[in-house]
Structure formats: C-alpha cells, structure tokens
C-alpha cells in the first residue's frame, strides 16, 4: 500500500484544518482529490509528502511512518509538484529537470551517467527533448508544465503528488497533459488535486472528496461523482449522467 492515513489531524496557525482523516490508497493508478477551496486539499497533499507534521495521527508510505524518514529518504520515495511552481530566470529545461536528481546525488559532485540517463528519459517522456536547451521562462504554459512533470519523473519515485497540475492550461494543453498523466498512472501511484470533475471522472481510478477538512467519500469515480456525495462535498446540486463507456459527466445543476 503506498499510503495509509490514520486519524490525521493538522492545525495551521493554531486553527484546525484537517480533522481525523482515515483512509488507505491502493498501490498504482490515479487518485483525484476534490473539494471546494479551503477544504484542506493542499494541506492533506503536503502532509502526505511529509512537509507538514500532524497534530495527531500519522501517514504511512509503504508501511513506514513518513515523519520518521529523513528528508532525503522521503524524496527518494515521494515526488511532489506544488501549484504554480516557478523556475529561476534563465534556467534551461534540462537544468530544471536535472534538479529532480538531487535526492540521488552525492553532495557537491556532478551528475553521473545514471543521473543523465534519468534526465534524458524524463525529457523523452514529456516530449521536450528538442527544447532541452531553451530557458524555462521562454516556454508556453503547457510546455512549462511538462517541464515540471519531467523534473518529477527524473526523481524516479514510485509515488507522485500533484497540486492542480491542469490549472491555468488551455484545453489543448489540458488534453495533452491528461494523456501523460494516464501513462504515469500505469506504472506509478499518482495523487492529484483536480477542480474539473469531468476530467476526474475520465482520468482517475478513484476519487477522494473533502469538505472542511473532513473526508466525505472515497471510491471509484462512478460512486463519488454522483449527486449525493457531490452535494455533501460542495453544498450544491449536480446533474450527473453516464456515457456509454460507463464514465460519468458532472455539471452543477442548472447549467
């Protein structure tokens, strides 16, 4: 099991944000996290990465307490891409992706053949080989997002956490990235925050819904992305239909 969350509670600034979360995520596939703004999605993702200490409870990854692992050991297990990541001006795509090798490299030593090969594979996977020498800040939004995904791939972790990876992308770039995420879910465990519920239905193997820091539902998209769980999650009604392939389409009621 990649993640076991047991009675997880977190306070930020003295205020409770997560309240006794308890669930298990299966190994492999894509889990989507949904909920309104302020529901605790990013806080939960950061706790799963070991970046926020629990007020109560624990997070286990592959049977080990994340809080007990040194940062370098955590970074070899779990890669996290935060929302709206930014690269220093002038940094090239290859230089950015190479930063994903930091957990595996010895301090103050240059990259070795294994590291360079990992960077090459990551660039190939996202289709940026021809743009490797370009500055990151000269790329389009979709290209930049692919560069950050390549950094995560170069880190070579079994588990990837993504905070709104489709945010600010136009429809063609969203479709492009969705295809890449599907490929990642075939060989890794991917946990990501999503706002588009129909995309969650198409891409995710399971969906986890939060409201005000509490777990509302977790399960297959067809179960969670249905009227009652969605009303409880967002406080409004939804119209849900099912396509011939069994995938739901979700819209707020009245649209």
TrEMBL record:
Q: Which InterPro entries match?
A: AAA+_ATPase, ABC_transporter-like_ATP-bd, ABC_transporter-like_CS, P-loop_NTPase, Siderophore_ABC-ATPase
Q: What is its main location?
A: membrane
A molecular function annotated in GO for this UniProt entry is: ATP binding
Q: Which GO terms describe its biological process?
A: iron ion transport
Q: Does the keyword Transport apply?
A: yes
Note the Gene3D superfamilies from the entry. Answer: P-loop containing nucleotide triphosphate hydrolases
State where the protein is found: Cell membrane
Tell me which residues make up the ABC transporter domain: 3-237
What's an example GO cellular component term for this entry? plasma membrane
- Residue ranges annotated as transmembrane are none
Looking up PROSITE patterns in the UniProt record yields:
ABC_TRANSPORTER_1, ABC_TRANSPORTER_2
Query: What does the UniProt keyword field contain?
Result: ATP-binding, Cell membrane, Ion transport, Iron, Iron transport, Membrane, Nucleotide-binding, Transport
Give membrane topology per the record: Peripheral membrane protein
| UniProt similarity note | Belongs to the ABC transporter superfamily.
According to UniProt, the name of this protein is ATP-binding cassette domain-containing protein
């Amino acid at each position: 099991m990649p993640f076991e969350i047991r009675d997880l509670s977190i306070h930020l600034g003295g205020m409770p944000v997560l309240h006794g979360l308890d669930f298990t995520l299966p190994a492999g596939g894509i889990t989507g996290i949904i909920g309104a703004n302020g529901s605790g999605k990013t806080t939960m993702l950061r706790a799963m990465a070991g970046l926020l200490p629990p007020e109560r409870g624990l997070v286990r990854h592959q049977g080990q307490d994340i809080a007990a692992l040194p940062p370098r050991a955590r970074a070899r297990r779990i890669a996290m891409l935060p929302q709206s990541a930014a690269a220093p001006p002038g940094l090239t795509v290859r230089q950015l992706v190479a930063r994903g090798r930091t957990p595996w490299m010895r301090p103050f030593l240059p990259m070795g053949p294994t590291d360079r090969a990992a960077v090459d594979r990551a660039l190939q996977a996202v289709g940026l080989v021809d743009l490797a020498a370009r500055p990151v800040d000269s790329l389009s939004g979709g290209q930049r997002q692919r560069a950050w995904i390549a950094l995560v791939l170069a880190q070579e972790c079994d588990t990837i956490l993504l905070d709104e990876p489709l945010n600010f992308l136009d429809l063609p770039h969203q479709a492009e990235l969705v295809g890449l995420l599907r490929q990642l879910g075939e060989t890794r465990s991917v946990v990501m925050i999503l706002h588009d519920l129909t995309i969650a239905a198409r891409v995710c193997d399971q969906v986890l819904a939060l409201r005000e820091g509490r777990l509302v539902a977790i399960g297959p998209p067809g179960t969670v992305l249905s009227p009652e769980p969605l009303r409880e999650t967002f406080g409004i009604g939804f119209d849900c239909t099912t396509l011939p392939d069994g995938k739901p389409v979700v819209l707020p009621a009245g649209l």
